[in-house]
Amino acid sequence: MTQPPDPDLRLRLTFGPAGMIGPGKAELLEHIHATGSIAAAGRAMGMSYKRAWQLVEVMNTMFRAPLVESSRGGARGGGAALTETGEDVLAAYRALHEAARHAGAEPIARLAALIAPPRDTPDQD
Fold it and tell me: Where in the numbering of this chain does the HTH lysR-type domain appear (predicted)?
C-alpha cells in the first residue's frame, strides 16, 4: 500500500473587501520576479496572459502602491518587475507561510497520521 502524500499548507490571507493574497498570487509574483515578464510568469503557471494581467491589476490596486511595474513591448521589448512594495508583500507572505508551517507542524503531523493511505486500484482488464 502506498503512503498518503505529505501535507501541503496553503495559506490564503483575506483582507475583507480589500482583497486577498494566497499561494497563486504569491507564485505569480515570484515568476514575474524570476522572468521579468507577466506573460512568461503566466505561461510558467499554465495561466493565460489575460488572467495573469488581471491578477496583477487586482494586486496593484489592492495595496497602497503597485506591486508590479511593467513596460510595453516594442523595438526594445517590454518587461515587468516587482516594485519595492511588491518585494515587501511577497517576503511578508512567505514569512507568514513559513511561520504558520512551523507553528502548525505538530497538529499537521497529527492530522496526517490520521489520513487513510490511498487504496490500490485493482487491475482493469
Answer: 27-87
45 exposed, middle or buried (CB, 10 Å; 0-12, 13-18, 19+)?
middle
- What would the CATH number be for the domain defined by 13-113? 1.10.10.10
C-alpha cell at 82: 516587482
Give the residue ranges of the chain where pLDDT is below 70: 1-4, 73-77, 121-125
Q: How many Cβ atoms are within 10 Å of 31's Cβ, its own excluded?
A: 20
C-alpha cell at 56: 496583477
Q: How many residues does the chain have?
A: 125
Residues 6+ apart with CB under 8 A from 88: none
Q: Are strands 68-71 and 20-21 parallel, antiparallel or unpaired?
A: unpaired
Per domain, the residue ranges of the chain are 13-113
